[in-house]
């Protein structure tokens, strides 16, 4: 089985690492990949928005399966593109079609889905530029903080939470009238603020059956104590210590099952990962968001905990046989800590030489923003490396990650030394 992974982050390096452990893997390709994936397969310099270019590569390399890492190609319909092409329709795609991808691609679509299927989530209303004044009136009725969400994809920046009513009104105006996030904010969802602790659940579905993958908690803010700007994610822990059996049963009954049943009832075909961002409020779970892919850096802790053969798992997904798949999970805790370039998530340098990777012991290092230049590994993005370790609990695992982080050097290296601080 020849497999192509689309993407270039730590998530995709982790997928490549796990797929490489399978005897069933033929050739592995990663597009565009990074310095880490280079040693596990062949990096292809493809644009993820150019489906014709991807098609050519798939045919040229006899690729049998495509695993889509990020959301954009899914929301743009890459799976539909494969299904509608006579030469590609037998190539398996792990990742949902365009309609299902709207669960991530449109906040309003996701909200309406949850409402229709009685899935607990924050109260909301959505507004366009034509209903701006209704939006102001709605904000006046809410208590602060105010949660404003651009309806469409905005590279993780489309959610703004403000304490001040006037600032919230100005933000709504900026999103709708000034198109702050372009077309993504031509519609804005305003919702009730939920106060609690967040975690994520991951489900893999073949469109008929589904399996629960390990859960995880990520740390999104750049600063210690969850302060400062949002990032793609600065670290993660799996499993989530506060998610006890009682809580996870509620998550299954009130959220996972109704979500999977809802897809069936609505006739929305979904093959791939459902990533459910949850918040626990007074011991009750609510959905914050759906994503239609794996999380990053959550992947760097959940995939290493999967003991089953990943090629077999994806084959079972493509063949709609997940009901007979025996998923084995490592009971230990995995943690990952992201090393980022100084300045990230604002402006940062690229091209700084990374050293010390050969000195790492007892941790897995997954590359994110890295590339090879003159036979050296250099930084090539804001999030640079994820250092993953196992332990009997998260503190033990983190100790190993931090021990190894000390050995890895690059100019202006930054990381959070307080992952798990709130647990
Ligand atoms: P989203 O992109 O929808 O996941 O939102 C980004 C982040 O904003 C989430 O991870 C939460 O931390 C926060 N957030 C979103 N919606 C709410 C809400 N209704 N109440 C509290 N926090 C929220
Ligand atoms: N770490 C959150 C995400 O991948 O969206």
Mean of pLDDT: 96
Quickly name the level 1 CATH class of the domain at 3-96: Alpha Beta
Shape estimate: globular
CATH topology of the domain at 3-96: Rossmann fold
Helix content: 25-40%
Strand content: 25-35%
User: Structural class of the helix and strand makeup?
Assistant: alpha+beta
Task: Report on this structure.
Among the domains are: 3-96, 3-Layer(aba) Sandwich (Rossmann fold); 124-191, 2-Layer Sandwich (Dna Ligase, domain 1). A hairpin with a 2-residue loop joins strand 15 (272-281) and strand 16. The protein is 27% helix and 28% strand. Strands 10, 11, 14, 15, 16, 17, 18, 21 and 22 form a 9-stranded antiparallel β-sheet that branches. A 5-stranded parallel β-sheet has the order 3-2-1-4-5, with helices on one face. The longest helix has 21 residues, at 245-265. With 423 residues, the protein is an alpha+beta fold. It is globular. The protein binds adenosine monophosphate and glycine. Adenosine monophosphate binds at residues 122, 147, 149, 159, 191, 193-194, 198, 277, 288-289.
Characteristics of this structure?
single chain, binds glycine, 9-stranded antiparallel beta sheet, 22 strands, 27% helix, 5-stranded parallel beta sheet, globular, alpha+beta, Rossmann fold, 423 residues, Dna Ligase, domain 1, binds adenosine monophosphate
């Amino acid at each position: 089985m020849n497999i192509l992974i689309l993407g270039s982050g730590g998530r995709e390096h982790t997928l490549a690492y796990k797929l490489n452990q399978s005897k069933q893997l033929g050739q592995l390709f990663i597009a565009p990949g990074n310095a880490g994936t280079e040693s596990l397969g062949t990096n292809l310099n493809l644009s993820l928005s150019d489906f014709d270019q991807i098609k050519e590569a798939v045919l040229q390399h006899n690729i049998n399966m495509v695993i889509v890492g990020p959301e954009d190609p899914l929301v743009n319909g890459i799976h539909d593109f494969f299904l509608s092409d006579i030469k590609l329709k037998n190539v398996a795609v792990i990742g949902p079609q365009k309609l299902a991808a709207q669960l991530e691609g449109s906040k309003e679509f996701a909200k309406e889905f949850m409402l229709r299927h009685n899935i607990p989530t924050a109260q909301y209303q959505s507004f366009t530029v034509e209903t701006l004044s209704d939006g102001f009136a709605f904000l006046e009725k809410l208590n602060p903080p105010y949660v404003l969400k651009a309806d469409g994809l905005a590279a993780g920046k489309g959610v703004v939470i403000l304490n001040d009513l006037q600032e919230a009104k100005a933000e709504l105006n900026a999103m709708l009238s000034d198109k702050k996030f372009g077309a993504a904010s031509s519609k804005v969802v305003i919702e009730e603020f939920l106060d609690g602790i967040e975690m994520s659940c991951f489900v893999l579905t073949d469109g008929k059956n589904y399996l629960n993958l390990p859960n995880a908690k990520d740390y999104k803010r750049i600063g210690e104590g969850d302060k400062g700007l949002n990032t793609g994610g600065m670290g993660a822990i799996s499993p989530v210590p506060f998610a006890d059996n009682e809580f996870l049963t509620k998550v299954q009954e009130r959220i996972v099952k109704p979500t999977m049943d809802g897809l069936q009832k609505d006739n929305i075909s979904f093959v791939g990962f459902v990533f459910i961002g949850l918040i626990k409020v007074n011991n009750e779970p609510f959905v914050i968001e759906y994503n239609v892919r794996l999380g990053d850096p959550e992947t760097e802790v959940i995939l290493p905990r999967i003991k089953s053969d990943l090629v077999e798992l994806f084959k079972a997904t493509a063949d709609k046989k997940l009901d007979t798949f025996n998923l084995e999970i490592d009971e230990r805790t995995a943690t990952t800590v992201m090393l980022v370039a100084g300045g990230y998530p604002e402006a940062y340098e690229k091209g700084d030489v990374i050293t010390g990777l050969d000195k790492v012991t007892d941790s897995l290092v997954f590359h994110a923003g890295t590339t090879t230049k003159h036979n050296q590994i250099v930084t090539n993005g804001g999030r640079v490396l994820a250092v993953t370790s196992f332990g009997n609990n998260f503190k033990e695992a983190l100790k190993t990650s931090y021990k190894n982080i000390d050995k890895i050097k690059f100019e202006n290296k930054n990381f959070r030394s307080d992952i798990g601080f709130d647990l």
